[in-house]
Design brief:
binds adenosine-5'-diphosphate; Helicase, Ruva Protein, domain 3; binds magnesium ion; Rossmann fold; alpha/beta; Arc Repressor Mutant, subunit A; globular
């Protein structure tokens, strides 16, 4: 048996793995200086006890929204000397309703809130009380599109300003979904969208720089070949421009090299890591989907695996399924699970969302083929989708 001595003295290609973690906030955030300074400008009135305009930030996953806001919060904390202003971060993936968010915001100020059982009116009153002492509150709602009753939340927070005498409440909403604006009702949309800012996906060149900065801090000297960084940047920009993906790619590639006992990380390692990282991300996406979406996905994977009955007959390219046969399979699966299938209107909505997440692609069939219909093709390998979804739905691995 090896001792810890032996294990720890083994040379590693990593100098500091935490630097490669998605939660790490680097000191410099290249290509986001302008965004950071604009956001700081919008929020700066809070530090003079005036109410900042509300702000919405949107951009795809991995464009640096969360780490920029965390950076700005550090600056804000460093600057605000008295208690005249506060900036609070709420992760709406976890706190996903008006009630939970208010409870989260007030928890630090109202000790009784640790015990639950208080109604919304009580929370609201506490919010007014707190702000009325003269506090300018900036509330950051990260992943704001996850909030179930967002219209109500925005209404509550905005309305509170009418009742607060000295202080105020401002909202910074951050969203990964571009389409989420349309889902809001017009009143909350216009309050939330007083200021808008977009984080564009990173280009290959930008990703390369971001990666190089992390390579220096995360890996031992001369371990990572430039070709590996270039490939990781190129693959990522092709797929999404998601910096998190690029970082994961390098991290996994490092694991691969290390497992093979090499002190060099090459572009081949990046290539081998690609499949694993894609599978990891697919898993994350699929596991957070609501059940009905997963059933639809299951239906698509199982028909893809057994082969479409119609595709060949109709001369459609293999891998493409007809919307109707998928719906039938979806109904069958619902029956097996003793769930009530939703109507086709909902089913189309599920398809849309799966498409937006990149799990499937849908295309209209054009005229001639069984009338007008939608063709569906699965993105990731159907076998791996099966492996992820089946235990979620049926509870056991077959
Ligand atoms: N401009 C940048 N410079 C350095 N690292 C970045 C930059 N943008 C993003 N990252 C890194 O990419 C990862 C994802 O960023 P994050 O802020 O979580 O994205 P988002 O919130 O937009 O999904 C984090 O590990 C972060 O440190
Ligand atoms: Mg984020």
């Amino acid at each position: 048996m090896p001792g810890f001595d032996q294990i720890l003295s083994k040379r590693s290609i990593f100098k500091d793995v935490t630097v490669l973690s998605p939660h790490f906030v680097p000191k410099d955030l290249p290509f986001r200086e302008r965004h950071i300074s604009e956001i700081m400008t919008v929020l700066s009135p809070a530090l003079k006890c005036q109410k900042p305009r509300n702000l919405i930030i949107y951009g795809k996953t991995g464009t640096g929204k969360t780490c920029c806001i965390k950076k700005i919060m550090e600056e804000f904390e460093g600057y605000r000397k008295d208690k005249g202003s506060s900036m609070q971060y709420v992760n709406c993936r976890i706190y996903n309703s008006r009630y939970r968010i208010l409870q989260r915001i007030l928890r630090d100020y109202v000790p009784e809130l640790d015990k639950s059982g208080f109604g919304l009116p009580f929370l609201y009153e506490k919010l007014i009380e707190l702000a009325s002492t003269g506090v300018q509150m900036v509330i950051v709602l990260d992943e704001v599109d996850m909030v179930k009753d967002l219209d109500e939340l925005v209404y509550t927070l905005t309305r509170s300003n009418d009742e607060i005498k000295k202080g105020g409440v401002s909202i910074v909403g951050i969203s990964n979904k571009l389409s989420f604006k349309d889902a809001l009702d017009p009143r909350s949309r216009s309050s939330l969208y007083e200021t808008e800012m977009i984080f564009e996906p990173y280009t290959a060149e930008q990703l390369q720089k971001i990666l190089l900065q992390r390579v220096d801090a995360g890996f031992e000297k001369n371990v990572v070949e430039p070709a590996a960084v270039n490939l990781a940047a190129a693959i990522t920009s092709q797929e999404s421009g998601d910096a998190r993906f690029a970082l994961k790619l390098l991290n996994k590639a490092g694991d691969v090299a290390e497992q093979e006992g090499r002190m060099k990380l090459t572009d081949h390692d990046v290539e081998s890591a690609r499949k694993m990282v894609e599978l990891d991300l697919t898993m994350e996406t699929v596991n957070t989907l609501p059940e009905m979406h997963q059933i639809v996905l299951y239906a698509i994977a199982s028909i893809t695996l057994t082969g479409s009955k119609y595709s060949r007959l109709e001369g459609v390219e293999s891998g493409f399924l007809f919307s109707g046969e998928v719906y039938e399979e979806y109904e069958n699966t619902c029956k097996k699970l003793r769930k009530r299938p939703r109507s086709t209107r909902w089913y189309k909505e599920y398809l849309n969302e799966l498409d937006m997440l990149g799990l499937i692609t849908t295309t209209p069939s054009g005229k001639g083929i069984r009338g007008q219909t939608t063709l569906i093709k699965m993105g990731p390998s159907p076998a791996s989708i099966m492996e992820i979804v089946r235990p979620n739905l049926f509870g056991v691995k077959e």
